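TA notes, week 10

Several of you asked for a full example with nothing omitted. So below is the full record: structure tokens for the whole chain, then the designed sequence directly under it. When grading your own attempts, check the secondary structure regions first.
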């Protein structure tokens, strides 16, 4: 149940294992929170937001390979930080072994003062040591102990790390922050390389529909699951849905946490139902906003950039990332993470603010004509990884027989990402296979740390 990345990953793994799967999705398309749609205001198919993945996302990459869309991801190891006024600091890997591979470009970066660099060096050194996986310290408290400078806090921790985890630094659990920093900046250049789809997300995930249909499985669109009944005699589930009853021997509930909380009272009473209900109550959402702008001319030749010291955080040059789009001029998408105050703006206010700020980074904006623009608000974008959150992330096992849980919010060890969703889907598919007595492995192995990180990798793996 649920045609997001988690549900698709589970369904495709099980279909590959020879099972006949019915994937029920309440909407008329796949992708869930990672999808695209025809925006009526601008008349263009746009992603609900730019979604990036990283080399360390082994399960998401495995899922893409399974459904045959891995070649639609474009990879890069370069990142450009831009200050208001336009000064640029390119960051990227060198020949040095991990975790030193990005050190030369970091040292050369003009976005950080010497004091910022020393502070960041101190914090990275601290992350070479194990961080207890059950630590309830917040990233913010730990950074205060590591005496971070204002520049390091605003231009690295708040912008790069807090926006990757989509929350403010005081609401982020230290072990999750440590995991993201190690994967993106320390373990290897490959783990930190960034991938972006060259087609809209809707087209990318249409690969799952084809994959399932080719194997005798199906997707039931516009099918909202409202309750489920277990028939012990027949050893099967019956789900009355908005478009008729669905029966199945096994059930995977791959719903977002608030949909799971809504379904819970309509599930059969079971030991453990109360515990799941209280786990669900501990989750909270964080918003992400994106502003999509079309100009009559090119405003930059960069494909993407990190924008410092302003409300807009990331620029994706979608006209260049989607070369098949016939853009006369340019189409850029600006992303604002942990966007609680930005989300209060109207679309017109957001577009005006974004254009004003963008001009501070790319002067060509001042002479360009804005042809159209739109804001997309995703209020329920991601769940927060607050200190202690692991106690509220259930494993794939559920309180009911032949029923398993998936979704980015379940216990994967990853923050709210497509990788977490793909992992949860693979774990749930493994649980189904164990249930029928034919164990299979779908979980993809993690990338091994390289260089000097091999020496600390094993110790850290146990403590996160
Ligand atoms: C704006 C934004 C930006 C993001 N950026 C990134 C990024 O750059 N990188 C990254 O890795 N992640 C990013 N994420 C997070 C990522 O999109 C999610 O973590 C991931 O897609 C979650 O997948 P899921 O399958 O667990 O849940 P969902 O995608 O929420 O899928 C659940 C599905 O269940 C369906 N459903 C709900 N209720 C029912 C019901 N009763 N019956 C049937 N179907 C139902 C929903 O329609 C949905 O399709 C972003 C998210 C947003 C919103």
């Amino acid at each position: 149940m649920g045609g997001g990345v988690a549900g698709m990953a589970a369904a495709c793994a099980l279909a590959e294992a020879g099972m006949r799967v019915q994937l029920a999705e309440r909407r008329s398309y796949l992708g869930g929170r990672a999808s695209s749609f025809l925006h009526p205001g601008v008349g263009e198919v746009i992603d609900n937001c730019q979604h990036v993945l990283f080399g360390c996302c082994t399960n998401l990459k495995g899922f893409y390979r399974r459904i045959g869309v891995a070649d639609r991801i474009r990879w890069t190891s370069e990142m450009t930080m831009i200050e208001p006024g336009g000064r640029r600091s390119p960051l990227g890997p060198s020949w040095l072994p991990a975790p030193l591979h990005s050190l030369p470009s970091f040292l050369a970066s003009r976005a950080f003062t010497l004091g910022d660099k020393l502070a960041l060096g101190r914090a990275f050194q601290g992350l070479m040591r194990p961080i207890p996986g059950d630590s309830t310290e917040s990233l913010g408290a730990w950074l205060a102990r590591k005496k971070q400078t204002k520049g390091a806090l605003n231009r690295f921790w708040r912008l790069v790390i807090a926006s990757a985890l989509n929350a403010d630094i005081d609401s982020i659990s230290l072990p999750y922050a440590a995991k993201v920093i190690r994967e993106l900046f320390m373990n290897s250049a490959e783990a930190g390389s960034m991938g972006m789809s060259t087609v809209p997300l809707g087209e990318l995930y249409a690969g799952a529909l084809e994959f399932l249909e080719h194997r005798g499985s199906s997707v039931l669109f516009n099918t909202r699951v409202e309750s489920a009944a277990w028939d012990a005699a027949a050893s099967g589930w019956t789900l009355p849905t908005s478009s008729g009853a669905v029966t199945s021997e096994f059930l995977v509930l791959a719903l977002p946490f608030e949909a799971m909380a809504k379904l819970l009272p309509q599930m059969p009473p079971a030991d453990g139902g109360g515990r799941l209900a209280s786990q669900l109550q501990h989750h909270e959402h964080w918003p992400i906003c994106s502003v999509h702008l079309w100009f009559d001319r090119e405003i930059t030749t960069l494909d993407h950039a990190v924008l410092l010291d302003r409300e807009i955080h990331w620029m994706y040059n979608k006209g260049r990332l989607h070369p098949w789009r016939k853009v006369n001029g340019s189409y850029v998408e600006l992303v604002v993470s942990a966007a609680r105050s930005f989300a209060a703006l109207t679309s017109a206010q957001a577009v005006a603010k974004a254009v004003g700020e963008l001009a501070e980074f790319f002067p060509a904006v001042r002479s360009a004509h804005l042809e159209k623009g739109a804001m997309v608000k995703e209020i329920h974008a991601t769940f927060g990884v607050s200190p202690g959150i692991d106690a509220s992330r259930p494993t794939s096992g559920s309180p009911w027989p032949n029923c398993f849980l998936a979704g980015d919010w379940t216990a994967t060890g990853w923050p709210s990402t497509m990788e977490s969703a793909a992992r949860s889907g693979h774990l749930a598919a493994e649980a189904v296979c164990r249930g029928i007595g034919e164990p299979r492995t779908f979980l993809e192995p993690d990338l091994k740390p390289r260089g000097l990180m091999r020496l600390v990798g094993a110790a850290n793996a146990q403590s996160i």
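The longest strand covers residues 370-383. Use that as a sanity check on your answer.
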